[in-house]
Amino acid sequence: MIVVKTGGSRGINLDYVLEDIARQTEPLVLVHGASDELNQISEQLGKPPRMVTSPSGYTSRVTDPETLDIFTMVYCGKRNTRIVEKLQQLGVNAVGLSGVDGRLLEGRRKPNIRIVEDGRTKILRDDYTGRIEKANVSLLTTLLDQGYLPVVSPPAISYEGEVINVDGDRAAAVIADALGAARLVILSNTPGFLEDADDESTLIPRISRDGIDEAIATHARDRMKKKLLGAKEALEVGVGQVILGDGRIPEPVTAALRGSGTVIG
Amino acid sequence: MIVVKTGGSRGINLDYVLEDIARQTEPLVLVHGASDELNQISEQLGKPPRMVTSPSGYTSRVTDPETLDIFTMVYCGKRNTRIVEKLQQLGVNAVGLSGVDGRLLEGRRKPNIRIVEDGRTKILRDDYTGRIEKANVSLLTTLLDQGYLPVVSPPAISYEGEVINVDGDRAAAVIADALGAARLVILSNTPGFLEDADDESTLIPRISRDGIDEAIATHARDRMKKKLLGAKEALEVGVGQVILGDGRIPEPVTAALRGSGTVIG
Fold it and tell me: Quick check: B161 and A81 CB within 8 A?
């Protein structure tokens, strides 16, 4: 079993990713993002994204109910449907799901979020952001047993049944854990984990389990920090290997599975 | 087995519909529309809906690729996710699907559509409208067997694997047929089939199979014509009864199943 997460950032070649997904023979679950397109459509709808920073330095998107609707429109509506369409054209019997379907991705809503703005700590209310705590994968195993390829998108659902905006990398890690996947491939618009984020020649090909904390602390930018944290959590719960691969190149999944990019674990 | 279709027109009380769905004890598939909201979001995105009329007098929405993306955003993204959320809050383990997932709703794309504009017949190209010809319900039966309630939205998929805009009532009829459903309930923003579309006191409580053609020919407005055509097709392929019910009232499904509205068949 493999879980592949493909990001939604500019530069990732989704056609390459999906063509390569269609080539895989092992059972596979695809998790996707759509962050770049979300920003575009939000602007078009007159509701530009508002990013905030937590006291510990992580950035995240403010998600009021209207933003959440735009989120599901772009992720579950446009992007997920187009991915399933493309996979169907490639002969793969794909089924699109969000974390809300069958309570696939369940977690805790953080109704009050502490943010730092203009140097001061504030509380943000009416926000629908959360953190995935478990994957109810019986829906996935039911579909996999019948030969379908699940294509999973955030959002998730809270224990109280509310739609919540969650991190896609963590969604993939929690699913990989719950399915007992041997490998988790996370594709983004870089060759992998870079010592210097601006210099692609500084790719670090391998990080041991013991070295992740140091990598998080010393090198990484924000988005990469989150990816490393996700990798760390996945390894902790039993995923064999996490590979940060390049989503811009042909056959990106195959390349990652052969050890290109950054192999963690 | 019951199939319920709820329209997306103004006036339908979706909370009433979903609360009543949660009360049903028979296995059930819900099919939904979102036409009113689609028009709103299309306007917001600067792409107002363009309706055209066929030579035989039916109106339909022009669906270029951009319109199709807005369609999936509203139907599969916003509306479907909110319906699944609400059902989950009501304790129903719902799973949202479009006709593209697992090729659930398959049909023929009409790449060239004949329309009448300014009194002249024209050909419209680059359109992604189609007609559902079959439902591959193995995905639905798999989910129903596991206790999930499927929530199905257009679009469908063409034999060539393209996403196509299709009629929601027909989607419900084809699913009801393929599942061998005893009854198909179609909820809209009227009490049922009205002799005079502007006068709700002219409800026709019952139409026999033999009387449908006459009703289509003599009484109905455009949208109601389509509903009657859908009902006729459903009855022809073996659905026992089609009920046109009022989606604005409390317990709309229960009321329809008890014979309120217009019972056809």
Answer: no
